[in-house]
Design a protein that fits this description.
Layout: E1 3-4, H1 12-16, E2 24-28, E3 38-43, E4 46-55, E5 63-72, E6 77-86, E7 90-97, E8 101-108, E9 113-120, E10 125-131, H2 136-147, E11 161-164, E12 168-175, E13 180-186, E14 192-197, E15 205-213, E16 217-225, E17 234-241, E18 247-251, E19 260-269, E20 274-282, E21 295-301, E22 307-314, H3 315-319, H4 325-332, E23 336-344, E24 350-361, H5 363-370, E25 378-390, E26 396-402, E27 407-410, H6 420-429, E28 435-440, E29 446-455, E30 463-472, E31 477-483, E32 490-495, E33 500-507, E34 512-519
Parallel strand pairs: 1-15
Antiparallel strand pairs: 2-34, 3-4, 4-5, 5-6, 7-8, 8-9, 9-10, 11-12, 12-13, 13-14, 15-16, 16-17, 17-18, 19-20, 20-21, 21-22, 23-24, 24-25, 25-26, 25-27, 28-29, 29-30, 30-31, 32-33, 33-34
Length: 522
């Protein structure tokens, strides 16, 4: 999930509040369903509705119908429109919402172009843009993305349309033979505003992954290699001025040759006007996944990119005294922590939500490599959830540990040469973590961390269990578990109105989609 500051919506939601309170919805005639077909719509930090994109019945032999359905927070239908396109040419790559406008990102299979269409919150069309100058790599990545249903990314990249509240949407592309990147900002009317691209004279191979939009900046992680075949990847934190497209920050998290830091999260503290980096730190000669990290760090940078402060929290010194025994055992088992989200409460406390993972041997990969296959001999093992609580003076005050059954993640070849944080980014881009999303109220006094646990009891089928961790200003931590019992072919979990999550179940044989709101017992 992208961490995006939500802008206020227009009067469309005033109509939504008056709609019927239908806690469930069943839709027939759905030929296919992917996660991205359904998007939560926010006002502030809270979910106020959903937009569903789907293919309808053909208008005629030469024309396809696409339907946009707008539902309120209680799954009551508010409005819908139909978009018509030439038959058998278009596939949706991405739909985005930036707080004031929806954007739909289509691929035209026949013409080898992509197209952006934008709509306001009443579903009135604002503009469109056809992009013809796709590189060979763009086309290759689109083809690969479509084979995967458009759902996941990988270390090789993904075509995206990133929402930026108050400004528009950023489209990424790849230059040369994936040697560089290009970012283009389009406003709500699909008009290009600025372009930022790699230096064509650079000898480095660069790829950027956008992660967050704030009041002023677009944040991301820049990955660099010194050659096309190089598996040695370095990462930097980048910040782009959303209004001008000027890159205002492009620095590695390490500001000294005496540091070995693994960056896993990069965000912006709007109150202090500082960039925040979080990850784990190692001894200078240690190797991640071979040697255990020494602890986690929080490093702050000014808006000018200068290091302001560094605070280390050692496992043995600051952390262990607050950890339960089972958490200590997982750290000794060579797990590392990937930061999934960083939030600040109205009480001044900071909460860091992390999920554990490590590299283990993959028996199938080893066998295929022995037969000459170019595959990874390792796989990722996803572990438990942790919440680190820091007081207003940045002192570690609590460590909460939530055990879950391990799950697996696919790793690309050369994973062992990546830093722990960078490999965590790859696993997240592939959708292999169990963490789903964080919900918060507008006052930032209540937070809910939602994840899925694949419960594996001996002799029984694996059960999917929704885990919810609730915490906030009252200082209490509550945990809720809901069994995701379903005969559906696919089930997807979405944020919902406060106190709920939304489950979408797709039944392939019935061509049916069921949506339901499930109350959290917190």
């Amino acid at each position: 999930m992208l961490c995006i500051k939500r802008a206020a919506l227009t009067a469309c939601f005033a109509l939504a509040t008056a709609a019927t309170f239908a806690q469930t919805k069943t839709l027939d005639g759905i030929e296919n369903m992917t996660r991205s077909a359904l998007s939560p719509i926010y006002a502030g930090n809270e979910v106020k509705g959903y937009l569903m994109f789907g293919r309808g019945d053909k208008a005629d032999r030469k024309t396809d119908n696409y339907v946009l359905d707008f539902y309120d927070q209680d799954l009551g239908k508010v409005s819908n429109i139909t978009i018509q396109k030439p038959a058998n040419r278009f596939t949706l790559l991405k739909n985005s919402f930036n707080g004031t406008a929806f954007a739909f990102y289509f691929c035209n299979l026949k013409d080898e172009t992509v197209e952006i269409e934008t709509y306001d919150t009443s579903l009135k069309k604002l503009g469109s843009k056809v992009i013809e100058d796709l590189s060979k790599v763009d086309k290759m990545i689109i083809q690969n993305q479509m084979k995967q249903g458009g759902e996941t990314s990988s270390v090789s990249g993904k075509m995206d349309l990133f929402p930026v509240p108050g400004h528009g949407f950023v489209r990424n592309s790849y230059t040369g033979m994936a040697k560089g990147y290009a970012l283009v900002m389009y406003d709500d009317n699909a008009k290009a505003k600025w372009r930022l691209a790699s230096d064509e004279k650079s000898k480095l191979y660069e790829m950027v992954s956008l992660t967050e939009a704030t009041d002023k900046y677009i944040l991301g992680i820049m990955m660099r290699r010194d050659g096309m075949l190089s598996k040695q990847v370095s990462s930097s934190m980048i910040a782009i001025n959303a209004a001008t497209g000027k890159k205002v920050l492009d620095v590695p998290v390490e500001t000294s040759k005496t540091e070995q830091l693994s960056l896993s999260s990069f965000t912006f503290d709007a109150e202090k006007r500082e960039f925040i980096a979080v990850g784990e730190y190692y001894k200078l000669d240690d190797k991640p996944f071979v040697n255990k990290s020494q602890g986690f760090f929080i490093k702050r940078f000014s808006e000018a990119g200068k290091a302001v402060s560094t605070k280390n929290y050692g496992w043995q010194k600051e952390v262990m005294a607050l950890m339960p025994a089972e958490a200590k055992a997982s750290l000794e088992d060579n797990y590392v922590n990937y930061t999934q989200s960083i939030v600040k409460g109205a009480n001044g406390k900071m909460y860091i939500v992390a999920e554990q993972f490590k590299i283990v041997g993959d028996g199938m990969g080893i066998a295929l490599r022995a037969m000459g296959g170019k595959v990874s001999v390792s796989k990722g093992k996803i572990g438990n959830m942790l919440v680190f609580e820091l007081d207003s003076e940045a002192k570690l005050s609590k460590v909460k540990f939530y055990q879950k059954d391990p799950s697996n993640a696919t790793l690309p070849p050369g994973s062992g040469l990546m830093s722990a944080g960078l490999l965590g980014h790859v696993i997240k881009s592939q959708g292999d973590f169990d963490y789903q999303f964080m919900q918060r109220n507008d006052a930032s006094t209540q937070f809910n961390v939602v994840y899925i646990n694949f419960d594996k009891e001996k002799g029984e089928d694996t059960k999917r269990v929704i885990g919810n961790i609730a915490f906030g200003d009252d200082g209490q931590y509550l945990e809720d578990k809901i069994n995701m019992v379903s005969a559906a072919n696919y089930s997807y979990l979405y944020p919902a109105k406060p106190g709920y999550v939304m489950i979408a179940d797709y039944y392939k044989k019935k061509n049916q989609l069921g949506m339901k709101l499930v109350k959290l017992n917190i």
